[in-house]
Amino acid sequence: MSTTPDSAVHAYLTAHRDTFLADLADWLRIPSVSADPGHTPDVRRSAEWLAAKLTATGFPTAEIWETDGHPAVFAHWPSDDPDAPTVLVYGHHDVQPATRDDGWHTDPFEPHTADGKLYARGAADDKGQVFFHTLGVRAHLAATGRTTPAVHLKLLIEGEEESGSPHFPDLIARHADRLACDAVIVSDTGMWSKDTPTVCTGMRGLTDCQIDLHGPDQDIHSGSFGGAVPNPATEAARLAAALHDTDRRVTVPGFYDGVIPLTDQERALFAELPFDEAAWLSTAHSHATLGEADHTTLERIWARPTAEVNGISGGYQGPGGKTIVPATAQLKLSFRLVAGQDTDAVQQAVRDWVAAQLPDGIRHTLTFWGATRPCLTPLDHPALQSVVRAMGRAFGQKIRFTREGGSGPAADLQDVLGVPVLFLGISIPSDGWHAPNEKVELDLLLKGAETTAHLWGDLAEHWHTT
Amino acid sequence: MSTTPDSAVHAYLTAHRDTFLADLADWLRIPSVSADPGHTPDVRRSAEWLAAKLTATGFPTAEIWETDGHPAVFAHWPSDDPDAPTVLVYGHHDVQPATRDDGWHTDPFEPHTADGKLYARGAADDKGQVFFHTLGVRAHLAATGRTTPAVHLKLLIEGEEESGSPHFPDLIARHADRLACDAVIVSDTGMWSKDTPTVCTGMRGLTDCQIDLHGPDQDIHSGSFGGAVPNPATEAARLAAALHDTDRRVTVPGFYDGVIPLTDQERALFAELPFDEAAWLSTAHSHATLGEADHTTLERIWARPTAEVNGISGGYQGPGGKTIVPATAQLKLSFRLVAGQDTDAVQQAVRDWVAAQLPDGIRHTLTFWGATRPCLTPLDHPALQSVVRAMGRAFGQKIRFTREGGSGPAADLQDVLGVPVLFLGISIPSDGWHAPNEKVELDLLLKGAETTAHLWGDLAEHWHTT
């Protein structure tokens, strides 16, 4: 099996670029916000749109898979070589909430292109990165003259990733036979930068929760009662503040249990990357770094577990002042987890810790929205080399290694299907995931398609030699 | 000068009760919320309504006094005895914010009477307690046959008390000559209970502020950046949490400077009151007491300075989760102050403390809404005895002593006018100041009027003997 000719791939991509982008824009117009019950019909519409598009792409099988929450999409295009390896591509079709009021310059669900960038909620996270696979597999066929892919190609595109994938473990357990594969390719991550293409070797896990605190049965006068009864806003603040010690380490007992420490090799590889703190801060729209003592910024975001306050509220928030002790307060917390941590154990540790912090007179409820397990691919895994070679051809550069601070349900796939998980993402830090004015770079989208146009041949060729 | 006959006072109050209550209801319909700029015209309308009503009551002088904020009302009814003492009654015509959504059973600005109680925002705090003076002075005249009050009677009813009286010191300084008096009567406080009438001997001061914290320039992804940059919601929580130590003492350096400690006599008087913790908690709509170590609940709310979180907000507050590091957070804090504390010094201490707490990368602004100074009347002050006697006649019971945890600009009057400040309030703890379903007890409103019907004669009689 020979490698796919570059020129034929380029010709195909050039010829189909405009149609590809117009189709992607249609998909981005569907506000598939999984966290907001008001958008439930839109998440289903997004799944149906994708299934129809995969059928049109040529997948003989393209199905909606129901869950107890939002639906996923499964597609399968078998190779005509029965001995070919089977690859499962993972992505998601749901998106984060977005409204103009958050600071978007244009409607987040009306894609617009400017200066080589496509702006829309989901452009990078993750519709764009799912969608380049449709163009990539067609380019692979066109450039090789094949009628089926060189690998048995499966896609599983879920609809609840932005809500912590609560039904994903059940989904893949139920369909484990149809999802059977030799490797998973996750396309829901990023690269170091436009100029430094990288392959990601692991993702952090995530579990997030909401804590509702109840003090007085109604707002009460702070002069008549303040200083003598528990204040739920104060207690919410004390919880949030007590999450970290002065070294910004998480204080929840047992939180760090099992954490696989960074090796000297990994710390050295991180340190080799061209990290520019000022540029990184600019991408983070932030004005200083702050995090766990004795760790670099990259170590903090890639390889260390963290706790974050995503939202806090309680009491009067209108103009001026209102001298009350509020009746209620609310805290939204998320915990990023790394390989070795057990999500169930972390949730229990948080529950125990919260209950132990609160004084008499404050009732609370704690709801975890979901849990996504961390995962880590060994640096020397042979299948990783196929991804590195395919990316190297598309980008014409040496490919380096990173990890991903964000989270995806990759570890569930790894555990349930018993196969290695590889990462192929073309997003870059400035793409603004979860933020206003999310975008994707058009040329990188096409490099993603080009990488997969090379990848399936490379994997098929090298699989049995590894 | 003989004392006012009880029967004549009763007859007057009975005959004029319905008109009095109907007039009060008209005033309560004006939503004079001083903290909300949207209600600025209503605060003015409230002042104009009151001035017209005082003119109708018989005050030869009833004027709107402008400030740089909301207007106050001044009225003057000289006695025909030039040697009579001059008394200045203080109250306020502005009210706390209130909407049905806060938990009101009926429209807060559409008064309704049920079971001997009048429900409306401002019914007790403070329109009801201002308004009983109009009925009381007429009863005083009717029962004594006088055509002018036995004292030179002045009223100053301000429009910014619920906003911390930011322009009150300037107002009284500008008009000090017209406000000149021998004593101030503040009608903006409460009694121990319906069954235990009391005179208040001091009020706590108040200063409240808003702190806005700015971290990232926009909300950012907590997976990509969380754990490596400062989070303003976390920092708001850390500020709020750091306000108190584990003994619930305020940690701001210098906060307790100058505090006049409780005497053994005062602690004993507090301890003699029939304090029922379960009943008090019920009134507080709370489920446990919590406050400064080594102090009783009454000491905490009456005689100790406190810090309270009135509101906190930052980040995502919609349904479900959103894994962000938020761009901004906000904290609304109030500080109750006691005699001996300097409000300017406390504000500066808070400013210094906040600035010292925040890490690099978090910008902040801090705005104080205003300051109300604490005040304390000596237990043995002779003018206090007139109030105690007049209340004793109206209530037919022994009058005991309390303090007031809430705040009013009494100390400014004391300082600028150089006179003692006395307190005459008929509200009770269950009246729900600043809370939903605020109400006033109709029979206590009339006891307030009855007290003043006796008070002016008693003061005139005893003034020159003290």
From TrEMBL, chains A, B:
Keywords, in A-Z order: Dipeptidase, Hydrolase, Metal-binding, Protease
Residues of the Peptidase M20 dimerisation domain: 202-360
Superkingdom as given in the UniProt entry: Bacteria
Phosphoprotein in keyword set: no
One annotated GO molecular function: dipeptidase activity
Record-linked Gene3D superfamilies: 3.30.70.360, Zn peptidases (3.40.630.10)
Lyase recorded as keyword: no
The enzyme's E.C. designation: 3.4.13.-
PANTHER family: BETA-ALA-HIS DIPEPTIDASE (PTHR43270), SUCCINYL-DIAMINOPIMELATE DESUCCINYLASE (PTHR43270:SF12)
UniProt name for this protein: Dipeptidase
Source species of the chain: Streptomyces catenulae
